[in-house]
Structure formats: C-alpha cells, structure tokens
Amino acid sequence: MQISPPKGRNEIDRDRAPASAAPSERLGARIAMDDFGAGYSSLSSLQSFPFDKVKIDRSFTRGLEQSRKSDAIVTAVTDLCKGLEMCATAEGVETESQFEALRRRGCQEAQGYLFSRPCEAGEIPALIAHLGIYVALPEAAE
C-alpha cells in the first residue's frame, strides 16, 4: 500500500509529521511525495516528513532527451533519492525510449501508459499476468 499526502498542501506540519506517519508505517504502507518538482513539493518536505518514495512529475518525463533541463532535473532527483535512501518513481512514462532514458539515469520505478492505462482493482491480476510480473503476497495471519 502506498499513501501520498494530499496535493495542494503548501506546507507539511514539521512537528506532527513523524507522529502522523507512524500508523501508516506500522501497517507497512509506503509514503510517497507525488508530482515532485511541480506545485507545492519542496526539498524541505523531504527533510521533515518520512517519505519512502519520490514520484517525479510527468512534465519532466515528457521532456527527457528533448530538453537538457528535464534531463538534468531527472538525474538530480534520482541522485537525491539515492542519497536519501528513497525510491525514485517516474510518472507519465509513455514510450520505450523514455523508459530506457530513465533506466540509464538510475530511476528505480516507472509508471504510465507504456505499462497500462488506469484500471479497476479487479483487473490487476490479469494486468500482472500480461506484464509477466510475479507477485508473492504475504500469507494471511492465522
């Protein structure tokens, strides 16, 4: 399970952030900063909130290999995530060349129409089978 703080929040409450994340962590949820580099996301948030993942905004993915600035930003964010021991996920991946460019820059995860359109929960097993991904779910506690 992954949780992203609501978009549109222009500041994270630094005093309450660690305590508010604790229940999510106990459930095994990962906490992601969505649309990093756009809107209200900021570097100070990475320091004050226990994020596990940073999701790079699709606007930078779209500009890969077309814009020196997009290339530099994606590389910087993936390097930053490595240094902070966080996962970097690129949003909006639509082409094989974007996916390959992200891989070369060290991006750990990607999501977008290259892999699937948004789907209902009941469609996920067929999607996983189609993509050839094996997922071992934990056994239920007795």
TrEMBL record:
<dbReference type="Pfam" id="PF00563">
    <property type="entry name" value="EAL"/>
</dbReference>
<feature type="region of interest" description="Disordered">
    <location>
        <begin position="1"/>
        <end position="24"/>
    </location>
</feature>
<dbReference type="InterPro" id="IPR001633">
    <property type="entry name" value="EAL_dom"/>
</dbReference>
<protein>
    <submittedName>
        <fullName>Uncharacterized protein</fullName>
    </submittedName>
</protein>
<dbReference type="GO" id="GO:0071111">
    <property type="term" value="F:cyclic-guanylate-specific phosphodiesterase activity"/>
</dbReference>
<feature type="compositionally biased region" description="Basic and acidic residues">
    <location>
        <begin position="8"/>
        <end position="17"/>
    </location>
</feature>
<dbReference type="InterPro" id="IPR035919">
    <property type="entry name" value="EAL_sf"/>
</dbReference>
<dbReference type="InterPro" id="IPR050706">
    <property type="entry name" value="Cyclic-di-GMP_PDE-like"/>
</dbReference>
